[in-house]
Amino acid sequence: MDRRNFIKLTAISGTTAALTACGNPENQIIRFIPEEDLVPGIATWKPSICPLCSAGCGVIARVMEGDAEVFRNGKPGVIRMGLAKKLEGNPEDAISQGKLCSRGQASIQVTYHPDRLANPRKRTGERGSGQFADISWDEAIKELVGQLDALVAADDQASLALLTKPRRGRRLALLAQWLQRFGAKAPVTFELFSDDVLRRANEISFGAAQLPTLDFEHAQYVVSFGSDFLGTWNSSVAQSAAYGRMRQSGPGGRAKLVHADARLSQTAGNADEFVAIKPGTEGVLALGMAHVIIANNLRPANGAGRAGAAIDGWAGGLAAFTPAEIEKKTGVAAAKVERLAKEFAAAMPAVALVSGAPLAHSNGLFQALAVNALNALVGSVNVPGGVSFIPQPGPAVATRGLNEILQGAAPKVLLLDDVNPVFASPAASKVADALKRIPFIASFGSFVDETSAMADLILPDHSFLEQWVEAVPESGSAKAVAVSAGPVMRPLFDTRPTLDVLLDVSRKLAKPFAPALPNTFEEYLSAAAPVAATDRRGGTSVPPAAGASKDAPLRTAVAYADPVFDGDAAQFPYYFLPYASQTLSDGSTAHLPWLQEIPDPMSSAMWCSWVELNEQKAAELKIAQGDLIEITSTQGSVRAHAFLNPGLAPDAVAMPVGQGHTNFTRYATGVGVNPIAILSPAVVADTDVLAWSSTRVKIARVGGPEGDGLILFGGATRERPDWTHGRGEEH
Ligand code: SF4
Q1: Pocket lined around ligand 1, Cβ cut-off 6 Å
Q2: Which of 98, 220, 704, 715 is the most buried (most CB within 10 A)?
């Protein structure tokens, strides 16, 4: 009898007795005593925070009484308890404003996922084989404490490292404090689509090393340089809400959105004007617009202050950036550059933004500085309708980059906090090989993935709905807030909150931390800021301290350099444009079946990988929709089915990131291919951020549309028989 049938039997019999006749513990039916006062059929709403990206959207969970499969004291059983049934945006939350993106809606599946880790595990097979045996929490903590005690005994505490996704607020502060108290270095963070280039540029231009908040609502003119701000970048829920208000005709008329890109993204599809541009030259267009504005005396060059001073040639009016030169470098017609610049200067307030692919070239820092200078030139910094920076609660917690582990001395003990660099790094980075050299790895995530499969010990976390959570949004709101919220429901399984486990370990070491840290993260939150009882809507919202960013010293002015690509243009003629999936993001949400099932907003594809080709270029190459294409870089090859996109540059091919997992639950494993694997490991100049847009590829048709490789919602391929380019094949 499997667990599903076991639940069915429970529901039919309604018994509360334990059945032991089968002699198999899996067949025991235990109905635990209810632990809560619940009124059957009546819903309550409890606040929490979506964990699926760093935007920190506030949610409310509809909680009702229900029967749940649980583990208690090492035994499976059924309990009637309060269960989260549905998530919505919290209307009281400054970021979500009552809305959620598709990932936020699907985040409830994290809690009820059939492959979620239900108890601690110890590795039994080869590293990476995914073979583990269940162990008790006492055994798991004893194992981890033993490893840490050994480091202390050898006076080698610096050989402990913690690798986490970029976190903020008091959770990161506590992790850093724990490491510092142990004697280890700062946390190591990893994120494929890192925004650190933009943070660095903002520090240079404006003295604020953080992501900006864009006041779309009050803007009259927006120029997006490759930023998919309505789809995948930054605080997309808050940005979409503000954009919606911007598009309602106000006193100044209907605001205009211009989008410059090499590919028609979701944001590009919403724009009034799409400007096709050569990849890696977006900053050149920004400076061309600035040149026109200065040359026509629409704004003085010195009005851009330090943001202008960061650009080589700014004081001289950017003489090298005439519209004719811009046309040569970017492919954007000189007359269009003139017109866009004059429209931008005339419409007040007007704001420009840049993110994503333009910042993932070798010259990414220059691109960001150029757009910052354009904003500063037209006076759109810290004004309504412009770009601003919300106050942060104290100085940022220092972190380190993954390269310190990959290239420096390997740690002896590594703690993994819900991060998957083995999947989300180029194969050339050899992350798995680096992890194999680490003697002991403990993972705290809720699922086995390509990285946690390398662990020796797994200590599974509560889901976000089962524990205290907090968010200190970096951007997305004009109002600075820090939000915390308590558990929405009791834990289903034999899991523990990661921070509580670390705090427990700190007390069980041979030399416990003295003075001791708080017993739990809840206590830590209470000590850091008053945490009131949660109510139906709110959670707890307190204003953080203002003015945390320090002015960064001005550096030497940055000059434009052509982007450097991996792969010779003659042999690899296409720019390779990987992009964050609207639903699967960087692949970290590919395990949620709702997100696999949602059609991509631009292609309508689902449950698969696809490669986007320009429609006319495909006709030249006799490639039809759905054909199997091999994409090859200097780093390797992947195969995916063709999707013909009229909004893609003819010399580019694009692929969504997110699929191609080899070990990430039943829903993601073996679905599609991973384009990250064939990227060059090059980094953006002056940073350690992966230049994920700097790879060139060649393509070859290696097969037809056999099988169900390209799955489009509603069978859209059949509606476009012309896509067969006269071969008469119907797909
Ligand atoms: S933007 Fe989407 S994924 Fe990110 S926190 Fe908000 S709802 Fe969650």
Answers
A1: 50, 52-53, 55-57, 100-101, 103-104, 236-237
A2: 220
Supply the pLDDT for residue 529.
54
Bridge-based pairing of strands 160-164 and 188-189 is parallel
- Put simply, whether the predicted model's pTM sits higher than 0.85 gets the answer yes
Secondary structure E strands in 531-666:
540-542, 574-580, 610-614, 628-633, 636-645, 652-657
Least confident residue range of 84-98, 288-302, 308-322, 541-555 = 541-555
Cα 58 to averaged position of ligand 1 atoms, centre (Å): 9
- What token pair was written down for 244? 């919606």
**Given the DSSP bridges, would you call strands 457-458 and 121-123 parallel, antiparallel or unpaired?**
antiparallel
CA of 168 to the centre of ligand 1 (A): 15
Task: Give CA–CA dist 442/456, Å, rounded.
Answer: 6
> Is residue 635 predicted with pLDDT exceeding 60?
yes
Evaluate whether 324 touches 334 at the Cβ level (below 8 Å): yes
* DSSP conformation class of 120: -
What pLDDT score was predicted for residue 21? 29
Distance CA 235, CA 497 (A): 26
Q: Of residues 72 and 65, which shows the higher confidence score?
A: 65
Classified as helix, coil or strand, 179 is helix
**What residues have CB less than 8 Å from 241, skipping those under 6 apart?**
97, 99
Measure 122 CA to ligand 1 centroid, in angstroms.
33
Residue 636 has pLDDT above 80, yes or no: yes
Number of helices and strands in the chain (H, E)? 20, 26
Q: Return the ligand 1 atom nearest residue 238 CA.
A: 1
Atom of ligand 1 nearest to the CA of 237: 1
Strands 652-657, 482-485: parallel, antiparallel or unpaired by DSSP?
A: unpaired
> Candidates 49, 52, 90: which one to mutate for ligand 1, based on the most atoms within 8 Å of Cβ?
52
Low-confidence winner among 90-94, 199-203, 481-485, 608-612 (lowest mean pLDDT): 481-485
CA of 93 to the centre of ligand 1 (A): 13
Give the per-residue pLDDT at 555: 62
Query: How far does residue 238's CA lie from ligand 1's centre (Å)?
Result: 9
From 86, 96, 191, 594, mutation site for ligand 1 pocket: most ligand atoms within 8 A of C-beta: 96
pLDDT category at 548 given cuts 50, 70, 90 is very low
- The preferred substitution site among 87, 101, 465, 483 for testing ligand 1, maximizing ligand atoms within 8 Å of CB, is 101
Q: Do 120-190+402-458 and 574-724 agree at the fold level?
A: no
Q: What is the pLDDT of residue 72?
A: 79
Instruction: Delimit the domains of the chain by residue range.
Output: 32-114+460-502+515-544, 120-190+402-458, 208-388, 574-724
CATH entry 3.30.200 includes domain 32-114+460-502+515-544: yes
* CATH architecture group of domain 574-724: Beta Barrel (2.40)
Residue range 208-388 forms a domain whose CATH class is alpha beta
Atom from ligand 1 closest to the CA of residue 55 = 5
Q: How far is the CA of 667 from the centre of ligand 1 (A)?
A: 21
Give 101 Cα–ligand 1 centroid separation in angstroms.
Answer: 6
59 CA distance to ligand 1 centroid (A)?
Answer: 9
Strand order in the sheet with 482-485: 469-471, 482-485, 540-542
Does the pLDDT of residue 421 top 90, yes or no?
Answer: yes
The beta strand positions in 201-301, using DSSP E, are 213-214, 221-225, 256-261, 273-276
Nearest CA to ligand 1 atom 6: 57
Average pLDDT over residues 233-254: 87
Q: Assign 317 to helix, strand or coil.
A: coil
pLDDT for residue 537 is more than 60? no
CATH: 1.20.1440.230, 3.90.660.10, 3.40.50.740, 3.30.1360.70. Which one for 120-190+402-458? 3.40.50.740
- Residue 531 confidence (pLDDT): 36
